[in-house]
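sorry to bug you again but im stuck and you know this stuff better than me. what follows is a protein written twice so to speak, once as letters and once as structure tokens for the fold. id like you to explain what the token line says about the fold, in plain words if possible. anything you notice is useful, everything is just below.
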Amino acid sequence: MIKGSCLCGEVQFEITGEVTPIQNCHATRCRKATGGAYAPEALASKDGFVWIKGKGLLTEYTAPILNAPPAYKRAFCKMCGSPLPVEIEGTNFMMLLAGILDTKTSTLVFRHAFVSQKACWHEITDKLPTYQGQPPVPEKYKS
């Protein structure tokens, strides 16, 4: 069982099953949504995801579609603004940022995406694979 929560603790969730390896997304939208150099994104199955507390405090923002669906969507806590898991339309997955996980997992970062849009002040110093744009979706995570 993997648990997660927002900064104020008023929204909590649990995940039964695995969380995918983490993708550090350097896309402009992801950087702006997190305020960081990248968004540490992971996926969890909708089937194993449950809101434990505070689902009513969840709010979503959907940005205009730039190239193709699905839309860029982010969820956050109305109280503290923490990013929260959001359903990826047309799939069986929830997208979440790894920083909101409270339970230790074996999930690690496995790649960098959209490095062509990375912040000018950030340098990627690890040896993980980098993709200039959207990397391919591993077969086991296609819905």
Q: What stands out?
A: The first helix runs from residue 28 to 34.
